[in-house]
Amino acid sequence: MKIGIITQARATSTRLPAKVLLTAGGRTYLEHHLDHLQATGLPVIVATTTNEADEQIVEIAAKAGVPVFRGSELDVLSRFAGAIREHELEGVVRVTSDCPLIDPEVVVAGVDRFRAEAAENLYVSNCLERTYPRGMDYEVFSGPRLLKADAEATLPADREHVTSYLHQNRTGDMRLVNMPWTESGSQYRLTLDTEDDRLLLATLIEDFGAAELNVHDLVAIMDKHPELHALNEHIEQKKLGE
């Protein structure tokens, strides 16, 4: 089964404009993100927009040897569908580029669970119930099933958020599997959405070598340094449809 990772990226983010193009430790957050994805050993595809503002994203991906699919800014579901068709993916891992420290081993565990059964109606994720820190999120699902969602989904939220047609079980036959973490890290934000998130991630990367660490190491640092958690613990995550 051909399984590939599709990560969505754009420069026109609203809370923190061009966030993935900002830098920490001499590299853009997008470069950190792609480093971690490539460490899974799976094919990686960047799904970005046709906007001129995203030319730098295309350049960074090309430098990393990662192919790019360009499509609609707002209809992200159609963008993913185009990438699936172009690369003939039977299985898909969806991640987002605001996760620069995503742990490759965490992603691979989800892929292994999906491969074990590889049913078209199977959806595997580690964030159906929050146990990992934000910034470690992934979803694994059938390529044909997302193409079906692209053909059938009409709700704007489903077009924007890509997988809600699947995990909200619009078809009534999806089987959802959560991959929980046995440790505790759900209180932490290791994602890039605001300036306070950026400050935390930059501190972790530049002062603690976080770009080389796994989720266990990162949570241990956060546990030991409550002042780091204080940098962004007040941030509220956007909800589906916002």
UniProtKB/TrEMBL annotation:
InterPro entries: Cytidylyl_trans, Nucleotide-diphossugar_trans
Cellular component GO terms held in the UniProt record: cytosol
Protein name per its UniProtKB record: Spore coat polysaccharide biosynthesis protein SpsF
